[in-house]
Structure formats: C-alpha cells, structure tokens
Design brief:
The complex is a heterodimer. Chain A is built from 12 helices and 2 strands; from the N terminus they run ααααααααβααβαα. Chain A is mainly α. Chain A folds into 2 domains: about 80 residues, EF-hand (Recoverin, domain 1); about 80 residues, Recoverin, domain 1. In chain A, strands 1-2 form a two-stranded antiparallel sheet. The two termini of chain A are about 20 Å apart. About 5% of the residues of chain A have low confidence. Helix content of chain B is about 70%, strand content about 0%. Chain B has 29 helices and no strands. In chain B, helix 10 packs antiparallel against helix 11. The longest helix of chain B is centred in the middle third of the chain and has 33 residues.
Chain lengths: ~190, ~750
C-alpha cells in the first residue's frame, strides 16, 4: 500500500477531508483505493457508468437513486472529495463525543443521515415527500407484484400516519418523527467506516 | 372488600389443595400403598370407605380404587397447585411488585416440601428425566418461536462470544479456583480432585434461560440487553453439554489426554452445528407440511408443536444440543408456517405455547423448592461460600473482559451500564440443578448439589429481587412500546436497500449485503416451496400492511360493537376475511333476522319520536326550546336509523340510498362503529354474492374478482373511490348470506 505519508500526498486536500468528515487517514486511504478501483479508466473522477458496473446496484430497487445521490445537481462526474463526503454520512456515530458544536457539523450525525435518506425520497428537492414521490418509491420497492390500488392504499395510509400538518405530504420533520423509534445510528452505519 | 374476600377464598382453596396434595404425596412417596391405608387418610366425603377385601360378598355399590388413577391424579394436583400459586400472586399485587414470581414459587415449593417432610414422607425430587424431557422444552420452544429475529441476528456475534467464550472462561476459572480452595486444609475437601472441580464448574457456570426469562420479563428492559442475556443463555447450552460430558468422562478415567481434549473441541462443533442442523431439517419439514394443512385446519397447531418436540428429542438421541435444535426449528418454521396456517390456528399456537411454558416454569420453581427440602445435603461452609463468590467474580470479570474485546467490532458500543446489567443478569437455575442431579451418587454429589442449590437461591433471590430497583436506579433504558407503523416499515426497508447499495459501492460485504442475499434466495427458491398458494409471492410489505389493517379492523369492532350496536348485530364478524378460495362472503345475519331487527329498531325509534312530539305538543311553556331539542334529537334518531338500516339489510337500502350518500364517513375513530367498519381501507370485501345489483362500481369489481389475487387486492380499496359505492358494497357483504350458507371458518391468517 505504500508508506502512508506518500499515499496521503496522492489524495488532494486529505487533511481538510479528514477534518470535515471525521475519517481517519487509514479510512481515507481505504476509500481512495476503492475509488481507484471503481475508476477503471483512471480518469480521476467517476461517472454514472462506473457506478453501474458495481455488482449489486443493478438489482437494487433504488440503485438508480443512490447513484444519482452522488452526483450533485447538474454534474456528471464525482471526484474523490465528493465521494468521501457522501460516504461520510454512513460513518457510525460516536456516542461519546461531546455534543457541542462539532457534532452537528459532521456528516454522520443523526440529522444529517436522515437528511440524506430524505433526499433520496424527495427527488424534486422541494423539501417534502409528496404522494407521488412516495408512490414511486413503493413502486420501485414492491415491483410488479402488487396492484396499483394496493400501492395507493399503502401510500395513503403512510401519509395519513405521518402527516401532522395535513398538507398531504411528508416534510423532513415529519419524516424524522416517524422514524424516532428506529435506531438510525445503527441502521445507517457501515461498520468498517469507523 | 371483594378482593379481600377473593384472596381469602383463594387462600382457602390453596390450603385445601395443599392438604390434598400432602396426603396424596404421602401415598405417592411411600412404596407400599394399600388402598385401605390411603383411604384412611382421605377426607373426601364423596367416596365411601368401601372394604375392598375378600370379606365383601355383596356387590359393591360404591368402591374406592385410588391406585388406578394415582399418577395422573397427582400430576394434575401438582399442576393445579402451580396454577393456583400463579393466580394468587397476581391477585395479591403488593408482594409481586417487590419479589419476583420465581422467588415466591421457590418459597412455596419450600413450604410444600416442608409440609411433606413434616408428615414423615419423602418429598418428590425434581427428576432429571422429567425436567429435561417434559418441563424444559415448552419454555425453550416458546422463547425460540417468538425470538425477535432482527435484534438476534444483529447481535449474533456478541451473543456467541458471551455464550461460548464467556462460559468457557467461567468453567475454567471457577473450576480452577475451587480446586485451589479445596486444597486448603481447613476445608477438609482434599478428596475433591481437579477433574471433579472442573465438572462442577461446567455445571454451575451456564446462565439459565428459565431464570433469565422469569426475571427479565418482569423488568421490561430494553431489547438489546434482553436479547444479549437471553441469547447467551440459550446458546451456551452447547458448551455446557459438551463440557459436562467431557469432564464426566475424564473424571471416570481420571486422566486427561491430549486426544481427549482435541476430541472435546471437535465435539463442541458437532454438538452445536449438529443440533442446529437437526432443528433446521425438522423446521423445513414442518413448514412444508403446513402447506397442505388447509385441508384440515383443526390439527394445524399440533404439527407445530410435534415437529418442534421431535426436533428436541431427536437431538437428544445423539447427545446433540437439544435446545439449539428446538430454537432452530422454531425460527426456521415460523415465517412459513405463519403464512400458511389460519388465523385461529396461529392464535392457538401462540396461546398454547404461552400456557405450557407458563405452567412449566411455575412447576420448575416449585419443584426446586421441594427438592431443596428433600435432597440429602452436605453443607460445607467454605465450599459453598467460595462457590458463590467465585461465580460472581468470574461473571463480572468475564463480561468486562469480553466487552472490551467485542466493542472493537460493534457499531453500537456496550456501555458500563449495559455491562453491569449483563453481568448481574447471569442467573443460574434449574438446568444446573438437574445436571448436578445426574451425577453419580457419591458424597461429592451431595456437596455439589448443596452448593448448586445455594448459588441458584442466591442468584434468583438476591439478584432477582434487586435487579428491578437497580434498573430503576441506573436509569437503564426500558423497552419501548412501539406501535406498529407503516411508515417505519417502509422506511426501514428503504434504508435496508440504501445500505445494501452503499455497501456494494464501498465493496464491503457487510451485514446488509448478506441479509439482502438471504432475502433474495428466500424469495426466489424457498418461499415457492414452503408457502401455499399465492401467498408465496406476496412481498413482506404487503403482508405487514394486511396485518395492520386486520388488527385495526378487529380493534374497531371490539371497541365499538360492545357499546353501540345491539348484541345480535355485533355478531357481524369482520374477521371473516375471505380466503384464497372462491370469494366467499362473510355471512353475518340471516335475512329474516335482519328484518326483525329493522322492525324492532324502527319501532323503538318511532316510539321515541312519537314521545318527543307528544311531549312538545302538551308542554306549552317550553315549546320553542323543546322544539329545537326534539328536532335535533329526532334528526339524530333518524340518522342513526338510517345508518343502522343501511348496515343491516339490502332491500331497504334502495330507498335510503340517496340520503346515505350525504353521510360522510370519517376514517378516524367515531362513536358509531359502522362508520369505521365501513371505511374502505379494511376488510370491505367486495367478493359478495352477485345477486345484488345496485352497485355503481361494477366495472372495476369483476376485474378484481377475476384476478387470482382478488381477495387480497379487494380488501385494500383506496379511499379515492366513491364512499357511497363502498358503503353499498359493505352493506352487501355484511348482510347478504351469499350462495354458500356455511360459514367460512378458515380465514387465512395474514401475518
């Protein structure tokens, strides 16, 4: 793997990335290796087809959405720092960290994790999950095995349950509230990214 | 006043029961029971004391033969005693708040044993055969069948570490230290050699599932801790079994060989994996069988019980871990069986399991108490006290050491509070006692048994009683009562997919990756074989949604029908959800009855109406006010009648349809049941008889009925559809008996 100092020089803005995401240098290196592995043509950035080459994503019902989440609006390339910043959302939360200041800024706080998930639902970025968006997600997850009416009733019920201000859509706060019993810190964390 | 009377009656019954018990156990214990002798002590006035000797020449009108029924009779008496005790503790709430039930039961056992001994008889001891073959399996099956799989699999690594490594550490530490203690001259225990000590260690170190369940259930601790301690108590059975047999063999031989040790390690893997394999095989066979049980629904629960019990027994044949086999069988069988069996069978399974495990658990503790009084004891202060101390110390050290290691791999670390609860929750119980009882009869056995009983008492009484205040004191997180939410389910599945995708991108084969693979495998191959009919392709979200809807429907019926509707009408069972066969309507009330009801209601309402009118006519003074009130009341009555009639009969509806349309049915809980029950999201099954023609939405209905999954889809009608159409549909369903007169009892359970 080479000596750490020289490898770190390969990664642009390593220190800044480490500060912003909370990754250690070992992790950053690992992610960089992975980045290079995905980047088959060695262009220094990733494009959608690089992502699509990844095995499981084709079968994943929301694979397309996940890929799109990496590309911020308009661009069709992902450089390493954006790659790392997105993945930083999935770093396990440190329970023991002091809660002042730093916790909120780090991408792996509970709120930020939920925000990331929310944005995967809310494709038009209007801050709410409308019924149509929810239906799309359900359709993607349940596939062709269910009828339209079933989807409609599930979506209807979901909105009814979560929608507290009766605007017929789920806002981010309502989304957070409906998931308050779920342990997001565990659920949205990948072990090796500690 | 009433509770007091009840409790005193209870005590009286309990006392009566006890006295019967004493007398009969006297007969049971003594070996030369002659009917005359036992009859002499019976106080039953129903049996006359007939002489069964040869002197009798005339035909005995009333004779007495106790021997004939002795065994089942006494077993029943014991069980009855156990049940009365359980009942008593719940009726008298004050004591059970401080002292956990298990302690009280042991105490009762001590009392009973004392009484029996006082009468000069030998009290029955907890026979190991009885324990392992009859009393233990129901408890384990109950625990295994309802094991929360999600938290179990998420923490499986931690649980295995505690179960295997933790128990091993306990065994060797306790065994070693006790050997050191035995070397002290003052103890006079020089005859206890190392192997015996290790054997003792292997018996005493295992955390007992029965005790853990009994105590933890009452303190409602958060799910993580519960599953950690409980999972550990289940999985350490393999270790215990292997070590016990190993050391017993060695103690026999008086030597330890290297090959023996290696064989021991291999034997561990064989015992645990073999046990799981046996359980899996029986589970799959059971799931497959349940696919065909739709032809005879009544015996469905028996299949579940028998397959699981056979799994346990088969594992025991080969000295494999019966507990792990039982758990594996239950876990494998459950999702498929639940998709196949009817709702009633599922309820039966659930309640029988709870019932049996409850009785078993009570009996075990009572017998523990009785056996304490019974057995020959060799009390050795040093041995016993040091055993207790070392048990505690080794548990604490083991937990701390293991947690330090495990926390490196865990996403959610175990805090000091968690560690304390895990250490404190390491209760010993009846398994240790039974294993000790199986030892060869010699003086060491009595020594060991005494120590084992002391440890059990200590853990159950002291730790059991103090754990609740400690949990409060340390403010340990309690179990969250979570209402099932469709949102949670949707989002959890969404997050699962998301995490799987991210793991794929990172190239990390983690928890989600394997879970996803397993789910896919399950969906494509296994479900097709093991689930009958079209349920095999039903996605999990839909099953969940159906289950929620069904639950809500039942809740609404139960809450509303008792208050508002007359009893006859409340027999309309919304639970009669149509099965996968030809859509059968839920037959509620016969047409003639409905007519009667209508007439009755109409008459009553009219009477009130008339009363109102006459009232307002003659009461001159309050005329204007009365008019308003009576008008409002009258309107209300009419509305109510409208709704009632709409609910009841079809033909009458024809005139009523226009006004009915105006009524808006709120989806939330309303005072009148039929509002909610007519909500389109529910069991409104349009699959009713076709002879009613007034439905507006006919174009959609035939389409639905023709699709193979009509019955499922039809239940989930979207709210966007016409309210009125649904009302009519519902009224049709609920009123029309349909072409098939017989009640369809076998509604499939929707898990």
């Amino acid at each position: 793997m080479g000596s750490s100092s020289s490898s770190r020089n390969k990664i642009p803005n390593a220190q800044e990335l480490m500060d912003q995401t909370g990754f250690s240098s070992a992790h950053l290196l690992r992610l960089y290796d992975r980045f290079e592995c995905l980047d088959r043509d060695n262009r220094g950035y990733l494009s959608p087809d690089d992502f699509e080459a990844v095995g499981g994503l084709a079968m994943n019902p929301i694979g397309g959405r996940i890929i799109d989440a990496f590309f911020s609006s308009g661009q069709d390339t992902v450089d390493f720092s954006s790659f790392v910043r997105i993945l930083a959302h999935f770093r396990p939360t440190d329970r023991n960290r002091n809660k002042e200041g730093t916790q909120q800024e780090l991408p792996n706080s509970r709120t930020r994790k939920l925000k990331f998930a929310f944005q995967l639902y809310d494709l038009d970025r209007d801050g709410k999950i409308s019924r149509e968006e929810l239906l799309q997600v359900l359709r993607a997850m349940l596939g062709l095995q269910v009828t339209e009416e079933q989807l409609q009733s599930i979506a209807e019920r979901a909105i009814q349950e979560a929608d507290l201000d009766k605007d017929d859509a789920i806002s981010f706060d309502e989304f957070k509230k409906s998931l308050e019993k779920v342990d997001i810190d565990t659920k949205m964390s990948i072990g090796f990214l500690k | 006043m009433a509770p007091l009377r009840r409790s005193s009656t209870l005590r009286l019954t309990g006392l009566l029961c006890l006295s019967f018990l004493v007398f009969f156990s006297r007969g049971f214990a003594s070996h030369d029971v002659v009917s005359e002798k036992s009859s002499g002590t019976i106080q039953e006035d129903s049996h006359s004391q007939a002489n069964s000797t040869a002197h009798k020449k005339t035909f005995p009108v009333l004779s007495f033969n106790y021997e004939h029924v002795r065994t089942p009779f006494e077993i029943s008496l014991w069980i009855l005693l156990a049940l009365f005790m359980k009942l008593g503790f719940h009726i008298i709430p004050t004591v059970s708040h401080i002292v956990p039930e298990s302690c009280l039961l042991i105490f009762v056992g001590l009392l009973v044993g004392g009484i029996i001994k006082a009468t000069g008889e030998q009290p029955p001891v907890l026979d190991s055969n009885l324990f392992f073959l009859y009393l233990l399996p129901p408890i384990i099956l109950d625990a295994g069948y309802f094991l929360p799989m999600r938290s179990f699999t998420e923490n499986i690594g931690t649980i295995l570490m505690f179960a295997v490594v933790g128990t091993l550490w306990n065994v060797f530490f306790i065994g070693g230290m006790m050997y050191a203690v035995c070397q002290i001259d003052a103890a006079e225990l020089a005859h206890v050699d190392l192997l015996s000590c290790l054997l003792f260690g292997s018996i005493i170190s295992a955390v007992d599932p029965v005790s853990v369940l009994a105590v933890f259930e009452e303190i409602h601790i958060n799910e993580l801790l519960h599953i950690l301690v409980f999972g550990e108590s289940l999985l350490n059975d393999a270790v215990t079994v292997v070590l016990y047999h190993l050391f017993k063999e060695f103690a026999h031989e008086q030597t330890i060989t290297v090959t023996g040790a290696i064989l021991g390690v291999i034997s561990f893997f064989v015992v645990s994996l073999g046990g799981v394999m046996v359980g899996v095989i029986y589970g799959i066979v059971g799931a497959f069988t349940s696919r065909f049980t739709s032809y005879s629904r009544v015996i469905e629960p028996l299949f579940v019980f028998l397959y699981s019990y056979m799994a346990y027994l088969s594992a025991e044949i080969f000295h494999l871990s019966g507990i792990m086999s039982l758990i594996a069988c239950g876990v494998i069988m459950r999702p498929y069986v639940e998709a196949n069996i009817s709702h009633k069978s599922y309820t039966t399974v659930k309640y029988f399991l709870k019932m049996w495990s409850s009785v078993s658990d009570t009996l075990i503790f009572i017998f523990l108490g009785v056996s304490t009084v019974a057995g020959p004891h060799t009390w050795n202060w040093i041995f016993v006290i040091f055993t207790v101390i070392f048990c505690l110390v080794s548990r604490v050290l083991g937990v701390i050491g293991l947690t330090a290691f495990i926390n490196k791999f865990r996403i959610v670390k175990l805090t000091k509070k968690d560690q304390f609860i895990i250490a404190y929750g390491g209760l010993r119980g009846a398994i240790a006692f039974s294993l000790g009882f199986l030892l060869d009869n010699d003086e060491i056995k009595n020594l060991f048994l005494t120590a084992i009983i002391t440890v059990i008492f200590f853990t159950v009484f002291v730790q059991g009683m103090t754990i609740r205040p400690l949990v409060e004191l340390l403010a340990v997180k309690k179990k969250k009562e979570s209402k099932e939410s469709i949102n949670e389910e949707i989002h959890t599945q969404f997050l699962d997919h998301l995490l799987t995708g991210i793991e794929d991108i990172c190239g990390h084969y983690g928890h989600h990756h394997w879970k996803d693979k397993l789910n896919r495998f399950n969906k494509t191959y296994v479900k097709r074989w093991l689930i009958a009919g079209e349920r095999s392709t039903e996605p999990q979200l839909i099953s969940f949604y159906n289950k929620m809807e069904l639950k809500q429907a039942m809740m609404m019926v139960e809450s509303g029908s008792a208050a508002k509707l007359p009893t006859i009408v409340s027999t309309v069972s919304i639970r009669n959800v149509p099965t996968k066969g030809a859509p059968k309507p839920s037959r509620a009330i016969s047409k003639s009855r409905e007519e009667e009801i209508r007439r009755l209601l109409r008459a009553n309402l009219q009477k009130t109406r008339q009363r109102l009118r006459s009232y307002s006519r003659y009461e001159l003074l309050n005329d204007p006010l009365e008019d308003n009130i009576s008008e409002a009341r009258f309107r209300k009555q009419r509305e109510m009648e409208r709704r009632m009639s709409h609910y009841l009969t079809v033909p009458a509806n024809r005139q009523e349809t226009p006004p009915v349309r105006k009524v808006f049915f709120q989806p939330e809980h309303k005072v009148y049941t039929y509002d909610d029950s007519e909500s389109p999201r529910g069991r409104a099954s349009p699959s009713c008889a076709d002879d009613v023609s007034e439905l507006k939405e006919t174009p959609e209905k035939p389409d639905q009925s023709s699709t193979p999954r009509a019955n499922r889809d039809a239940e989930l009608k979207p709210k966007e559809q016409d309210d009125q159409g649904d009302q009519l549909k519902v009224s049709r369903c609920l009123s029309d008996p349909g072409p098939n007169p017989e009640d369809d009892e076998d509604s499939t359970f929707l898990p």
